[in-house]
Amino acid sequence: MATELDTPPGARTALALELLVHGVGGTTAQQMLGDPRTVRLAGDETAGIHRRACDADAEEHPERHRDEPVPEAYCWSNLTSGDGSRALWLLLLPFMFANLAHWMRPPTLRTRLARGYEVIVRLLALSLTVLLVAAVCEVALDIVGWQCAGRAGCARDRSWLSFAAAERGGWWSLPGRRLLLGAPAPVAMVTMLWWLSHRTWYAYESQRPASRPAPPPGTPSLALPGFWYGRRSVARLRTAHTAAGLLTVATALCVPALGHDLAHDGQDAGHVGWLLPTAGWTVVAVIAGLGGTAVGVVCHADRSETGLDDTPDHRTTRLLLAGSPGVLTAAAVYAAWGRAGWTSTGRLPSAQAFSAITVTQGVLVTALAVTAVMLHRKPPADFEDCTVALRGLAGPAVALLGCALGGVLSGGVAQRCADWLDGGRTPGASGSPLVGPPAVLTWEASVIPAILGLLGLGAAALWWRLRRREHALRGPVEALYPRDEHHAARTRQIARAVARAGLTDAAPLLMAVFCAAAFALGAGAVAGAWVGGGTPGEVAAHAPKALAAVADASQSLGSWLVGAGVVALVTLGRRAYSDASARRTVGILWDVGTFWPRAAHPFAPPCYAERAVPDLSWRMATWTAATGGRIILSGHSQGSVLSAAAVWQLDPAVRGRVALLTYGCPLARLYGRWFPAHFGTGRLRDLHEDMHTWSNLWRATDPIGGPVGIGGPGDGVDCGPLLDPVAYGRDAAHPLLEPVLGHSDFQADPAFAEQRALLLARLPYIPTPVPSQGSSGRSSG
């Protein structure tokens, strides 16, 4: 293979490009290129390609760029950042966890079992939508409309609710009409989720990648042409989840009225009373039929990744989209029909519904765990040396975490609203006008202090492990700087950085302990609600005073902690969007979660990679075709993941002109362990064999990136660990103490320029001149 090192005399070399892709912290084109004057060659303010102003016409004058590649920056931070209102996406974390579980499937060749795994995850995601809508129905319909408005002691103190109070005897005072008064809240929430999913769908999933021929069998999934084009599957899932949400509201309206009609044979509804039970059963039958249809659509909403699927919506999805608002309207009319003798007592019949949802989720998580174990036991031959987090149970663990978070938020919000409406009294206690939310929700809110206590114990264990590890590393750290005079404070600083970086590898163990505790506490909450028949305070009333006090404190503290937690979550999200340091703290977890397409839950936060990856692959393919040049694709942190995914999308001819330089790279350390079917050792090895031009820089002080761990002694990908800091103390070359860089500033290390030059030298040399690329479409930046 000819290289630039053996270029014939007098021959003109093709232009070389260094395409820079930043990481989770986000940055500007000026910072990436080290020049205040930049131009945007392509894209927009959300994501675009930028160059220094002096390099804007580099294609027309390649002789000016013989020594180094032309730097070019792809800025994508606005795909995941924006104004503070986008922090509200953090409230949909349960949906994001369900979506992540889909992509955590263990690698396998057993396609039917793998499809069963994906179907179970999609059903779990659907149950989370039903749970969230049911929780809003519990607050708006049961606690506000049924209980508070139906009791004089509560409605009298609420001027905004007094017009619907049962004691007024007005039109809105009938129980069914009070339920109808609360229905707009869950309907508005479902509509908002649909709108957000639809809007982001047009911005992300509907962006069409480049068309490519059908790949041969055995092609890695990330190399399939339709992997980053989830238009059809997201549209079908969005229709099914929207219908399920509206059907949940219709059920909450219809079932109480039907229960009353069956108990009284419609005798208090006038001359048409005998028709009401029939009408109620008809509405329930339609709800059940449409609900079964929604489940069927979810089960068959598989992703089509081998091509760009633009198949129109099936008749079934159109039926759901039209039928669910219709049956909701019918249920509203049925519930609002006048029934003179109907009064609201106790709770709505929703306690059984929440218990059923919780048990269903437990069964689905168990089935998912069994399926994951079966998949993990027989991995493909090229994945046998792959390190898989939690022995293949990472997906079930994350799904369980999403279900637990959804249950705790539902229970906490319901309990907090009941406490607020009750004026400081305890709902359900003597003297309180409110019965409160279903017992299972109260129990779920009451376990929050126990979960926080477990997290505190885990944090203490990690701190103790950190101190031990820090002490053990002091000797090896000083051995890295044998010619320097050592000082305890400086050694401790470096050792602490290395020890903290190693805490990332303890995440699977912490996740396992937390999920096991969450499953046990969730099962205890359901058992307590069923067996005890009341709230923790009521059940412990007959116990010793100390136990009763603990139960009451847990019940009260749980509801307050949920409110504080929601406020803290939104505040942290707002800071992450506006403050770079806060974004680096939480950004990696958020960007990992939103990297993957919405394959399981359509209301999860949108996938930015469905625009970023096609952007990069389009740029590399069109630029090499226009110039015949070579590209160094330089990716930092999450940018290295985007870069690897973009290289997979290239044709072999284009891929041969691209070298990959990664640093602070989480491909093996995070993605390979948690998403082994897509980034496992076998997949990364295949990518390396296809490219041969890949170098990865890493540091032991980096808590996110690490070695890739592939390649032989003479052809390895990894370069490291780089010395960090580059100098222990002060000397002539370093008059000031060098900082511990960790995950940042890899380009300042001499190894960066060295590896870039080696990669460029290994790329194919093209001796003939090529047509220059036009310079149209540039705008000032």
Strand order of the largest sheet: 8-7-6-5-1-4-3-2-9
Number of strands: 9
Q: What proportion of the residues is helical, as a percent range?
A: 40-55%
* Average pLDDT score: 83
Kindly report how far apart the N and C termini lie: 40 Å
Number of helices: 26
Question: Main beta sheet: strand number and arrangement?
Answer: 9 strands, mixed
The secondary-structure class comes to alpha/beta
Strand content: 5-15%
Unreliable stretches? 1-12, 768-781
Radius of gyration: 30 Å
Shape: globular
Keywords: Membrane, Transmembrane, Transmembrane helix
Protein name: Integral membrane protein
Transmembrane segments: 87-104, 116-136, 179-196, 240-259, 279-299, 319-337, 357-376, 388-409, 440-464, 509-533, 553-573
Protein architecture, described:
The protein is α/β, with parallel strands linked by helices and 781 residues long. It has a domain at 4-80 and 609-780. Helix content is 54%, strand content 6%. It has 26 helices and 9 strands. It has helices at residues 29-33, 93-103, 111-148, 152-155, 175-182, 184-203, 231-264, 276-299, 315-336, 351-377, 394-421, 439-446, 448-472, 474-479, 488-502, 507-532, 536-539, 545-578, 580-593, 609-627, 638-648, 652-655, 667-674, 676-679, 681-691, 750-762; strands at residues 16-21, 38-43, 48-52, 70-75, 630-636, 658-663, 694-699, 718-722, 779-780. It has a 9-stranded mixed β-sheet, with helices on both faces. A hairpin with a 4-residue loop joins strand 2 and strand 3 (48-52). Helix 3 (111-148) packs antiparallel against helix 10. The longest helix has 38 residues, at 111-148. It is globular. Residues 1-12 and 768-781 have low confidence and may be disordered.
